[in-house]
Design a protein that fits this description.
Elements (H helix, E strand, L loop, with lengths): L5 H9 L11 H16 L5 H9 L2 H11 L3 E2 L14 H7 L4 E2 L1 H8 L9
Parallel strand pairs: 1-2
Helix pairs in contact: 2-4
Length: about 120
């Protein structure tokens, strides 16, 4: 991505900066390095999967969560035998970072939806 387009415009124009976390903290960078080293040293993943992991935001999101004691929410699922990509839940499990999919998160938070028809 070149930093231009609808998602970037929305983020720049409509989101309060206090809702955007920085990955510039040293603690985040240290954890990110640990994640990338684990991925790069793991023979399970193909070289293309390793390169992709290093080039997308997933690792930074996971590193931020680990360094801040937070959980990661994604719609990915753990895949023990996968080789063609590095799933977020696999990395989270390796580094003891809580991971939830959206429905698990809603259950954990006790969210309730009351749908009534007019």
């Amino acid at each position: 991505m070149d930093g231009a387009g609808p998602p970037q415009d929305w983020l720049r124009d409509d989101i309060d900066r206090t809702h955007i976390a920085s990955t510039k903290e040293e603690s985040v960078a240290i954890v990110y390095g640990q994640l990338v080293n684990w991925v790069q040293g793991n023979p399970q993943f193909m070289e293309a999967a390793k390169a992709e992991f290093a080039s997308v935001a997933d690792g930074w999101v996971i590193a931020y969560a680990k360094s801040e004691g937070l959980a990661v929410v994604s719609q990915e699922t753990y895949a023990a035998e996968i080789r063609k990509r590095v799933p977020i839940p696999n990395v989270c499990r390796q580094f003891d970072i809580p991971h939830y999919d959206l429905f698990q998160l809603l259950r954990t938070l006790g969210a309730r939806f009351d749908w009534t028809t007019p």
